[in-house]
Fold each of these.
Amino acid sequence: MNQRPLSPHLQVYKPQLTSVLSITHRATGIVLAGGALLAVYWLYALASGASAYAEAQALLASWFGKLVLMGMMFALFYHLLNGIRHLFWDAGHGLELKSAYQTGWAVVILSAILTLGSWAFILGGLR
């Protein structure tokens, strides 16, 4: 049997910001699909009566539920902002390495700020 060389992959290359952001973009898309399933669960509980709705609300109001919701909110903001970044790339803007790194960090930082700001608004509005 012939031993052919393997193509370079994630175990060979050192992670770079651009590759990590690309993988994160795909991962946040998967998280958002899971969030859609969670929304369907919540709507089903809402339609199923008061006790089912109370159980769903209790789950989402728990520390774990809040952690999941916060992660989904970060995924939403990240995926949205990185998608806008990709639209600019499609138009031929920001393709230089320096610009790609600057906009990449901007996406990460703005996603965190928007997530934390939204949670501060939500929690502040509930009191």
Note: Helices lie at 17-48, 50-61, 63-90, 97-125.
Amino acid sequence: MVTERELIARVHTAFSITGKGSSSWPDPHPHRNPRDEEYSRVSDPSKWRIIGERADAWLVALVETGLASVDTTTPIAWRRSPGTDLLRSALIVPHAPTALPLIIARSRIGTVDDAGVTLGVGVPAVCIGWIPDCGCDACDSGSQDVLDELDSLILRVVSGESWRVWFSGAREIVVVGDEGAMQTSGVFGSGEVQSLLDDPSCWYDYSGTSWITGQ
């Protein structure tokens, strides 16, 4: 049985091949003081293709280790639209029978195809993240930051983390794992998030086993 450490090593090895078409870059704002004009500017959307190349490395590693198969022909049913400009999607089906499937979709940034990656989990799928979350020059935190984010989200699915998702209009709450790591988008009133967390009737719950251990 492959271990999590061995899987990550396979990803790194595969990325040395899939990532040859892109170059890494440092955080252009190490002290987080972007200029005002950077917030409305995406000077090089094509550089974000490095994220898709990292996602390709994950696909290679998951198949080579025997943990999953990849289906690029089945249409993906989303519980609601992820809000990104999706171009093509892959359904990654784990071989562990009670594990959650993963969706890796490519999205457009500006006029550049396949510059972003949208991730989903389950059937019908719920969006668990899109990378980069913006893509403008002001929000650019360097290539390693977004690659780490992609790795973390995929590894959470592969390791069998549970997901709770609530959404209404443009507002969304995602709670990950037993420790309850939470991310929100949209505007919430005072105490509203907690009241929603306390109401089990308004959540979509997704849970599965580890792709590696099946438990």
Note: The first helix runs from residue 4 to 18.
